[in-house]
Amino acid sequence: MSIFATKSIEQLKAEAAATGEHALKRVLGPLNLITLGIGAVIGTGIFVLSGTTAADNAGPAIVLSMMLAGTASALAGLCYSEFASTVPIAGSAYTYGYATLGELVAWVIGWDLILEYALGAATVAVGWAGNLTSFLHDFVGVDFPARFAAAPGTVVATAAGPVTAVFNLPAVILTALVTALIVVGIKESATVNTAIVMIKVAVVLIVIAGGAAYVNTANWHPFVPPNTGTFGEYGWSGVFRGAAVIFFAYIGFDAVSVTAQEAKNPQRDMPLGILGSLVICTILYILVSGVMVGLVPYQQMKGSPAPMVVAIRAAAQASGGSGLLHAMTMLVELGAIAGLTSVMVVMMMAQPRIFYAMANDGLLPPFAKKIHPRFRTPHITSLITGVVVAVASGFTPINVLGQMVSIGTLMAFVIVSIGVIFLRYQRPELDRPFKVPLVPFLPALSVVVSLVLMASLPAATWLRLVIWMAIGFVLYFAYGFHHSELRKRTVHAPVVARRTIPDAS
Q1: Is there a domain that residue 475 lies in?
Q2: The whole model's pTM is what?
Q3: pLDDT in tens, 135-157
């Protein structure tokens, strides 16, 4: 049987409707889905990567990078919404690839999504740790031991002088707490996420409204700083490199599609959750990044794990110690801690459900589809995800993690967008509660924009992707190929005798 054999839409829908001990629990409504999307999107992008990307790549033109990344996300979001309403089953891009482009492509996406969700959660944990240690120092008067507050080899500035870190303990502690939460249940995780989302959206709105009064327009000039002679360091190449890196900030919306089997009415609510959260977050991102690079020269945010705090603190000093800006600093640090926590919840909730979908198809061992008898969650893969995230966040720098997540996500977007075109022509009669307009133009544009952003990432990131995919191919042909449920059903299907028609001559 071909490695590009596809699963039928009818079979996928039957699996989505299945009940029993291996079934997930349908408890999520439209508000839960929108806040899950916002919970995953608003976090590292606003509180961490927006500042570091402005400092390293785009300067004030980070606003343009945000717009470009948001456009790419919107195009992909339309494609995800069509699939999520047509095939409402856990697995997201993995499942969509299986339905349109075949088993091997589905495996590639599933393996690729580990970069998005597991390493994405690790990236967030590192940013969370930076904001926590900053908050403890500024407002509690406690200095967390620098040796245990960053990835190995990271030089941390302290009052006693620079210290080389050996381990990121706060990131590992957060990972353990979030792992416990997602094991307990999807509804509990969604409820906690909704509460946190309300807090961090309020903080972002306060920063936009309060910070706008202290913007120094001189900090916006030149809006596109001249290129240094190196691709990606300012200039227009820096805008594109910045969009590719900051794209990490938008990846949360596709995590909504992973929970399709836990939505009460997925055909109606999945597009609402995906596109609604994306629109809200894109507007907030553009506004807050413009305010941030207007508060302080972008160079001052370079190398900081909490660049927004740096920007507000510098603006407070420049204004003679504004009480409002000082209060905003505390709010931002609290908002960042809360916001990054909700991103962790959504990403670490998504990854085990990808494993669950792959195990149901036989591409991963059976333990990966086990559901806890009481909590109705994929508890074993949730624990495995927790261990992977803890190790990655404890020992890997944030810039390496962020770029790997971006390239993995963009690759998934390319395949999903191609899949929409394929399925429109293969199965035009399917019921599609939500349709991407202007097919094939918009999905094709999504492919092009995603590929352009991928091309803007450093060569080292591409090398890591190639190595990661090579490992994935070995695992597929060593295990998944031989245990595929689709292949088993085809091999053991009854053979229908074919009538021999006599030769007319």
Answers
A1: yes
A2: 0.77
A3: 888 778 888 888 888 777 777 77
